[in-house]
Write a structure and sequence with these properties.
The chain is α/β, with parallel strands linked by helices and 515 residues long. The protein is 56% helix and 10% strand. It has 18 helices and eight strands. It has helices at 2-13, 27-53, 60-84, 115-126, 144-152, 166-177, 196-200, 231-243, 258-263, 275-284, 305-325, 336-369, 378-399, 406-413, 416-427, 448-475, 480-505, 507-510; strands at residues 104-110, 133-139, 156-158, 182-185, 191-192, 209-219, 254-257, 288-300. Helix 2 runs antiparallel to helix 13.
Length: 515
Amino acid sequence: MKQNIKNWIDDLRGKRTYQRYGEKEQRKNRISGQFFSIAVALSASIYIGWCYINAQWQYWYMAAAFLITESVFLLLFLLWGNVLWAKRHHRPEGPPLEKKNFSVDIFIPVNREPVEIIEKTLIAAVSIAYENKKIFVLDDGEDDKVRSLCEQHHIEYIRRPTHENRKAGNLNHALKLTSGDLILALDADQIAKPEIIDRIIGYFSIPGIGFVQTKQVFRLPKGDPWCNSDDVFYSVMMSGKDYDNAAFSCGSGVLYRRTAVESIGGFSTWNFVEDVHTSILLHSNGWRSVYHDKSYTEGTAPEDIISHTKQRWQWSVDSIRIILWDSPLFRKGLDFYQRMQYFHIGFHYVVFGIFLPIFFIIPVWALFTHHFILREPFWHYIIARTPYFLLYLLSNRITTYRLHTFKRFQAQAGLFAVFSSAFFAALFSRKRLPQYTVTQKVSRQHTLRARIFKCLPHIILILLSVAAIAYGLTTIRNDFWFLVINVFWASWTIAVLWRFVALSLFPKRLIPDHS
């Protein structure tokens, strides 16, 4: 800790010895982001303290909900600030490989994906420009067409006799039948570039490196309506986690050291997907990871509301199960910063799923009841809240390289019902996972009824907000600032949620064809 403080002070003074790629060049952005993060934390603490002092406890049920939610969001920001405090980047060409010629097994697990998608992945895998490689298709769908495809392209085909433990079980079965020094995992829809192995294999000249995750990109409709590019995650967050040796596997486009995976008993079967939990096990057993922030694969992402919410639900269940039932906060082998980095993943889903809806409900309650949880004049609230609000926006803009836009916030906030459902699924799934099915790789048409069901909570909140605004405008005559503030926040709810509803109900109009 003392060394970290010294390094930070030296960085502020420009006296630090900069050894990592891009570290010196990004100094101004890094320091600016750090100071704004500190300013946000201070302004938020002052604001929340003011709210505690001025709470009207006769409405204790709403006051408690409001104050707890504000406090939880502050904690989330502190964890977020830790993620983005400093970022580690790497040379695009990767490090040179020092003499040792690693053998690489390429694992491509499949499970009834369309054959034409699988074939494109196989053709790309064959074209990877690394000689000492073997390609294995791990077929959990028992599809003879896939077997024929492998024979056609001279690729090894593995079909296991049983199908327990989902993708992780499939990978572990292949792990026992193969012997390459390194394992490149590619999903069935991931088109790899020829240079993928050459660019990242040099990291394994360092004995302690357990795996290297590359940036992922996806073929998306024009405008990326669902924000499936996940720019903030792949271009910002993962580099922040890499700085603390907490970058985790995303399951595809990742190169593992076989001995590292074998040292923890194989890929983790504890969650739906093996990636994050396997990463925690590797880190807690002393292995290091690298996030190489350049992309060498291109995959697909869900385009329809059903597939999109299903995928995000599975990710959030996995992450929440980890913080509830195998918490990184108490896992031996992780240092303080790794614990914070891993805890942030699941905590984010909990906050957006359980606490964010409280912010949607409070202005509705206030406008219908003419009550509020603070007793001070409302222009005092504006003075207390505005610095926190503006500093937060500026901080996010700087630390995320302007990638964290309102559209991306809409995409995350619109999934509040998905994350809420995931929380309760994880809460009651300590020993046994909920039902799981593989996310579809192609877009499908779904009934209007099914699409309405997915956005019904959003529709209800929007209608309640509209009704509350109308009621407040027609009934509140003598409290201008009370009306303005609550109409503003009710309108904010509508602005946040409308996009999710529109994309769910009118996908053909709002989700154009690929360009």
